[in-house]
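Quiz preparation item.
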């Protein structure tokens, strides 16, 4: 008896972290946006890093239902931030439909990093997120213990996403307790990233979201000038190779994880 071939579930992905507002995308931004839905990208989140980019992000999100935005003051751009920008952020969360506050955090990679100013800025933005009831998008480099400490002492309960997660399994569990998802992107595609790939394989699928961090964090063997959100599928394929669940289950879970934490219907 003839049995029709079973149709595989359609793969739909969500890029939980990309910087499509950066100038490097001025020539191909429109092409990327018009291609996303066709190839199965259900949505993207663009986190703001400096106050001067916020207006454009809001305009882009208003025009595109598949583009979601966060606004924040990134720890690596301290020289561009002013005290007034914190007040601007307080106003922005009251009049704009934002998905999160971010990209915020602590970056201790450089020995001469101004940790005191970074911490002050981070704590202020956590308080704004608390008041607004919004999740946060975290930038964490060599600072997991301090981030976890401030989440605890500031009693932050709205969760968010730890961008480009590279901490330990024990730290991952503590982030989970605060309601956070963990972002995995291009770094996971590199065979030499043994520790990171083990984490991606062993963490509960409910903890994981996919990201590209475009234009940065290019996937393994990608040779073009800059990364794009369209490469979310290469990151997804690496995650599928590392885990035991079927591909469609991983796609559904990571996409729903992103949408759930960001309050996207």
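Solution:
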């Amino acid at each position: 008896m003839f049995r029709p071939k079973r149709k595989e579930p359609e793969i739909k992905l969500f890029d939980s972290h990309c910087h499509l507002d950066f100038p490097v995308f001025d020539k191909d931004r429109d092409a990327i946006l018009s291609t996303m839905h066709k190839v199965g990208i259900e949505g993207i989140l663009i986190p703001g890093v400096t106050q001067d980019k916020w207006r454009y992000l809001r305009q882009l999100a208003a025009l595109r239902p598949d583009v979601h935005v966060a606004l924040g003051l990134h720890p690596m751009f301290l020289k561009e931030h002013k005290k007034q920008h914190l007040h601007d952020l307080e106003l922005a969360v009251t009049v704009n439909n934002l998905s999160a506050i971010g990209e915020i955090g602590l970056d201790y990679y450089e020995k001469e990093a101004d940790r005191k100013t970074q911490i002050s800025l981070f704590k202020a933005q956590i308080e704004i997120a608390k008041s607004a009831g919004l999740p946060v998008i975290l930038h964490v480099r060599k600072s997991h213990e301090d981030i976890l400490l401030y989440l605890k002492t500031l009693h932050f309960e709205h969760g968010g996403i730890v961008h480009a997660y590279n901490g330990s399994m024990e730290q991952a569990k503590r982030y989970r307790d605060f309601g956070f998802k963990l972002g995995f992107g291009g770094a996971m595609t590199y065979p030499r990233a043994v520790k990171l790939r083990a984490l991606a394989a062993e963490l509960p699928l409910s903890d994981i979201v996919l990201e590209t961090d475009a234009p940065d964090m290019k996937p393994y063997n990608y040779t073009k000038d800059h990364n794009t959100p369209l490469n979310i599928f290469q990151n997804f394929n690496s995650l599928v190779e590392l885990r035991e669940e079927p591909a469609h289950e991983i796609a559904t879970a990571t996409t729903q994880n992103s949408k759930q934490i960001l309050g996207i219907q």
